Amino acid sequence: MSSAHIDAAPGQIADTVLLPGDPLRARFVAQALLADPQQVTARRNMLGFTGTWNGRPVSVMGGGMGIPSTAIYVTELARSYGVRRIIRIGTCGGLGDVAMGEVLLAQSGSTDSRFNRMQFGGHDLAASADFGLLRAAVDSAAEQDLAVRVANVFSTDCFYGGDPQVLDHLRRHHIIGVEMETAGLYGLAMREGFRALAILTVSDLFATGESMPAAEREQGLIRMAKLALACTEPG
Ligand code: HPA
Question: Is residue 163 flagged as an active site residue?
């Protein structure tokens, strides 16, 4: 049996899933880094793959853009496939003194979305990373000689428009990355009981309007995926 939005048979998805937004990036990561990657789902072209890494099964699946899309896939991965660890690998806009290409490890996700409030009695949830995964990512990055920064990020529902003051608020609260999924992923992880982390490469700078070229985005994706895989190593 599959779930409403995922075709895979039970057992075809590993208990660790790397989650880029774009399904073609999921395919790229699976083919570049996993041994024997098999496509396990393609409903609505939201591709997912399972292979092995260092002999252990790992899946890579697209989650789409924004909290609602991500939440559908993540909820089904957790509830229908028993996934225990989800590591988002994505991009974000950078604020303040962040540099293009910097890798952020999101320790918290603030948001303008009502998604977590709707499940939390209207109160504000401190949507947070799993500490064990965050620590493993910090340690693995040091081993890989990869500079990373533990950061607070903001997940917005509005890629275009939204609150014109928001960047001022973010700067004031030392939030340095803006993307569209992390707060929802972390809220779901807290409710559903799986472990989550978002690893984000800065691909746009608000200060200058500069954007990262496509080839560098690809390198950034592989860098993040290698870090994500390393922090799933046992022990
Ligand atoms: N805003 C929202 N999401 C993003 C951005 C951004 O500037 N850059 C990459 N993902």
Answer: no
Helices (H), 64-130: 67-81, 115-118
CA-nearest residue for atom 2, ligand 1, is 179
Protein residue whose Cα sits closest to atom 4 of ligand 1: 179
Q: How far apart are CA 28 and CA 165, in angstroms?
A: 37
Q: What is the pLDDT of residues 97-146, one digit of tens each?
A: 999 999 999 999 999 999 999 999 999 999 999 999 999 999 999 999 99
Which residue among 201, 203, 208, 216 is best mutated to probe the pocket of ligand 1, counting the most ligand atoms within 8 A of its Cβ?
Answer: 203
Answer yes or no: is pLDDT of 202 > 60: yes
pLDDT at 16: 98
Instruction: Report the chain's terminal Cα–Cα distance, integer Å.
Output: 33
What are 214-235's pLDDT values in tens digits?
999 999 999 999 999 999 877 5
Mean pLDDT, residues 185-198: 98
Nearest residue (by CA) to ligand 1, atom 9, is 92
Backbone torsions φ then ψ of 170, nearest 5 degrees? -65, -45
Nearest to 95 by CA among 228, 209, 207, 187: 207
